[in-house]
Amino acid sequence: MDSVTIIAVASIITAGLTTGIGCMFPALSEGKAVSAALGSISQQPDAAPTITRTLFVGLAMIESTAIYCFVVSMILIFANPFWNFIVQ
Amino acid sequence: MDSVTIIAVASIITAGLTTGIGCMFPALSEGKAVSAALGSISQQPDAAPTITRTLFVGLAMIESTAIYCFVVSMILIFANPFWNFIVQ
Amino acid sequence: MDSVTIIAVASIITAGLTTGIGCMFPALSEGKAVSAALGSISQQPDAAPTITRTLFVGLAMIESTAIYCFVVSMILIFANPFWNFIVQ
Amino acid sequence: MDSVTIIAVASIITAGLTTGIGCMFPALSEGKAVSAALGSISQQPDAAPTITRTLFVGLAMIESTAIYCFVVSMILIFANPFWNFIVQ
Amino acid sequence: MDSVTIIAVASIITAGLTTGIGCMFPALSEGKAVSAALGSISQQPDAAPTITRTLFVGLAMIESTAIYCFVVSMILIFANPFWNFIVQ
Amino acid sequence: MDSVTIIAVASIITAGLTTGIGCMFPALSEGKAVSAALGSISQQPDAAPTITRTLFVGLAMIESTAIYCFVVSMILIFANPFWNFIVQ
Amino acid sequence: MDSVTIIAVASIITAGLTTGIGCMFPALSEGKAVSAALGSISQQPDAAPTITRTLFVGLAMIESTAIYCFVVSMILIFANPFWNFIVQ
Amino acid sequence: MDSVTIIAVASIITAGLTTGIGCMFPALSEGKAVSAALGSISQQPDAAPTITRTLFVGLAMIESTAIYCFVVSMILIFANPFWNFIVQ
Amino acid sequence: MDSVTIIAVASIITAGLTTGIGCMFPALSEGKAVSAALGSISQQPDAAPTITRTLFVGLAMIESTAIYCFVVSMILIFANPFWNFIVQ
Amino acid sequence: MDSVTIIAVASIITAGLTTGIGCMFPALSEGKAVSAALGSISQQPDAAPTITRTLFVGLAMIESTAIYCFVVSMILIFANPFWNFIVQ
Amino acid sequence: MDSVTIIAVASIITAGLTTGIGCMFPALSEGKAVSAALGSISQQPDAAPTITRTLFVGLAMIESTAIYCFVVSMILIFANPFWNFIVQ
Amino acid sequence: MDSVTIIAVASIITAGLTTGIGCMFPALSEGKAVSAALGSISQQPDAAPTITRTLFVGLAMIESTAIYCFVVSMILIFANPFWNFIVQ
Amino acid sequence: MDSVTIIAVASIITAGLTTGIGCMFPALSEGKAVSAALGSISQQPDAAPTITRTLFVGLAMIESTAIYCFVVSMILIFANPFWNFIVQ
Amino acid sequence: MDSVTIIAVASIITAGLTTGIGCMFPALSEGKAVSAALGSISQQPDAAPTITRTLFVGLAMIESTAIYCFVVSMILIFANPFWNFIVQ
């Protein structure tokens, strides 16, 4: 195996696993937050606007961690400095 | 094994595992959200429209993490830059 | 092992595992949603139509993640671009 | 090991594991749904027909994920395109 | 190791593990369903016939996933197409 | 290692593990069912006959999955077709 | 390593692990059943004979799965057909 | 490594692990039973003799699974038929 | 494999895994905090401003641990001193 | 590595692990029993003598499983028949 | 692989994993503390200043363990004595 | 590697792991017992002497399992019969 | 690999993992203690000084275990006797 | 690798892991004890002196298991008899 191949393989596997692993817990966490929001609305329907607003801010924060992982995957696939160095 | 084979194998395995792993927790999470929504409706039937609307927004957010993984798999299968470089 | 064999083996194993792993949590999740629906119906029989409708929308969303995995398996078995490139 | 043997072995192991793993969680999930149905019937005997009907729809949905895995196993054993290509 | 031996070994191990793994969760699940049925009977003795009938339908569904695994094991031991191809 | 030895070893290990793994969850599950039965009897002593009868049917169903595993082990030890083919 | 040694080693390890693993969950399960029985007796001292009798039947069923494993271990140590074939 | 060494090593490791693993869950289970007995006595001091008697029968049953493992270990160390065959 | 390749591969894999693993628990934790906030708002709507403010401070603290991991990944990809030493 | 060394190494590692693993759950279990005893005493101070006596019998039973493991370790270190055979 | 490469690789991997692993539980723990604080505020709004102050002290203590790991990573990347010894 | 080295290495690793693993659950268990004692004292301050005495007996029993592991480690480091045999 | 390199690598990896692993549970544990303190303050605001003081003593004890690990890491990096022996 | 290097490496890794693993559960356990103490104080502020005293005795017992591990690590680093034998 030459260097080009090894770095390509490592980038492919890492990109896939980073997104695969990194999206697990944000998904779990958003489900938890949505469940709590639904329970809260059914318990206190009058506070629905406040609950919804807090939920969306929270979902944005949680989604951000999933996006970090997605960004790292995209960097490894399309803007990988090690790959650029090797294939020059 | 030549370079073409290795990169093809790595892409196949990574594409499968990324979707396989990455769909686990979104599914779990959507089940949790749906369960909470059903519990909330049965507890407060009058708030059903608000609950349903919040549920659908939440499911869309959760589904988005599964779709990130699916997108990475599709990129690895059909638009893999490392594969394109090798098979040129 | 020549290239054709390796890619075939990788495709077979990945296709099986992707479906096998990817169907675990949707199944678990649907069971959770159905359980919640049954509990809700027994608690509030009058809301059965709303509950059933929300349940079916939720099951469709959850089933979709299982279908992503099944689709990736089918692509790997019957429309694998790497295999097509090799066996040309 | 020649190509025929390797692909046969990979198909056998994958077929077995796909069914073995893929049937775990549907079974667990059906048990959960049945338990919830039994609890609901004992709590609200009058709603038994609605509960039973919803249970059967839910069991069918859950069983479908087990059947995806069984179908993939059967394809790998009896309609494996890679095997057909090799043994031609 | 010649091809016959390898395929025999793979079939033996896979057949054993498929049944071994595949019977774990159906057993767990049936235990759950039976427990729920017993709890429901003690809570609502008048609904015992409905509960028993629903239990038996549910046990049949759950047992079916165990039987898929047992069937795959039996196919691998007594009607294995790869083995038949090799020993011809 | 010649073929006879390999197949013998694979059969021994698989037979042991199949029974060992396959008896874990039925045991757990029977314990759960018995516990539920005992709790139900103490809660509703008048329903003891119905509970006992349902318990025995349930234990028989659960035991059946343990017996599938035991049967596969016995087939692998005493009626193994691959072994018979090799030692002929 | 000659064949006799390999089969002896495989038999020793498998015999030990089968009993070791196979006795874990029956023990756990009997503990659960005994706990439930003790709780039931303290809750309903009048039903002690029925509880004790049901407990003993249940313990016998659970013990049976541990005994399957013990039997397989004993067969592998003292009546192993593969060993008998080899050392003839 | 000659045959005598290999079988001795396998016997040593298996004997240790069988006892080590096989004593875990009986210990856990006895702790559970004792806890339940203590809780029951504090809840219903009048039933102490019945509780104690049932506890001792249960502990004996649970201890028996630990003893199976201990017996297998002792057989492997002091009455190992494979070892006897080899060192003759 | 020459030194440049090895260090590149190690950096790629480590960068991906650090972000992938390091984002799991912050996401989980933020979901927990958001859930608690939503539950608290529905329970005590008057304290919403205090709750929201405390939530945002807490989310910032939790996000900081995810950012440590992201920073380490970025250092490994774009400002790696070992890589700079080697490629000089 | 000669036979003496291998058997010594296997004995050392097994002796350590058997005690290490085998003492985990008895410790856990005794903690559980002691906790239950303390809870029972605080709930029913009058039954303290009965509780203490039952606790000590239970602790003795649980300790016995830890002692089985300790005994096996001591046998492997100081009265190992395989070692004695080899170093003769 | 020469010494420089090996030490560089070990430093890269260790630095990444130390931060990745070491940030998991502090994040989890801060989420727990924040959740508890939010629950406490909603339960006792008058004690909000005391709660907030105690929360911040606690978060600082928890964050300190994450910072130990971050510090070790930074030492391994930028002030590694072993690296400095080798590249002299 | 000569025999002296191997046995030294095995003794070092085993001694460390035995203490490391063997101290985990006693610590956990003592924490549980202390927690129960504290809860019992706050619930029934009058029974504090009895609770404290029972706690100390229990802690002594639990500590004894940790000490078995520590003793085995010390034997392996300072009174290892295999080491003494080799270095004679 | 020469001795200097090996010992450097082992020291780097061990130092990182010891801190990484050793900081996990103290962090978890401090989060638990802080949560309990916050819950206690909200429940009994008058006892806040006693609670805070006990909390700080407890955090110091817990932090000490994290510091043991940090100290071992620092010893391995900056005062390693094995390294000093080798590089003399 | 010569003997000195191997023993040094084994000592380094074991010393680190023993402290790293061995400090996990004591930390967890102390957190549990502190939490219980805080809960008890808030529930029964009058018993604070007794609770605090029992807590400190308990923490000392728990800390002792962490110290056993730390002592073993220190022995392996600074008073290792195997190392002393080799480097003489």
From TrEMBL, chains A, B, C, D, E, F, G, H, I, J, K, L, M, N:
What Gene3D superfamilies does the annotation carry?
lithium bound rotor ring of v- atpase
List the GO terms this entry assigns under cellular component, sorted alphabetically.
Answer: plasma membrane; proton-transporting ATP synthase complex; proton-transporting two-sector ATPase complex, proton-transporting domain
InterPro entries, A to Z = Alt_ATP_synth_F0_Csu, ATP_synth_F0_csu, ATPase_proteolipid_c-like_dom, F/V-ATP_Csub_sf
Site Reversibly protonated during proton transport: give positions: 63
Keywords (A to Z) from UniProt: ATP synthesis, Cell membrane, CF(0), Hydrogen ion transport, Ion transport, Lipid-binding, Membrane, Transmembrane, Transmembrane helix, Transport
Membrane topology category: Multi-pass membrane protein
Superkingdom: Bacteria
| A Pfam cross-reference name | ATP-synt_C
The entry's localization annotation reads: Cell membrane; Membrane
Q: Where are the transmembrane segments?
A: 55-79
Pinpoint the V-ATPase proteolipid subunit C-like domain residues. 13-76
Molecular function as annotated in GO: lipid binding; proton-transporting ATP synthase activity, rotational mechanism
Please give the family membership noted in the entry.
Belongs to the ATPase C chain family.
Functional summary from the UniProt entry: Key component of the F(0) channel; it plays a direct role in translocation across the membrane. A homomeric c-ring of between 10-14 subunits forms the central stalk rotor element with the F(1) delta and epsilon subunits. F(1)F(0) ATP synthase produces ATP from ADP in the presence of a proton or sodium gradient. F-type ATPases consist of two structural domains, F(1) containing the extramembraneous catalytic core and F(0) containing the membrane proton channel, linked together by a central stalk and a peripheral stalk. During catalysis, ATP synthesis in the catalytic domain of F(1) is coupled via a rotary mechanism of the central stalk subunits to proton translocation.
Q: Which NCBIfam families match?
A: alt_F1F0_F0_C, PRK13468.1
Protein name (Swiss-Prot/TrEMBL): ATP synthase subunit c
Q: Which organism is it from?
A: Arcticibacterium luteifluviistationis
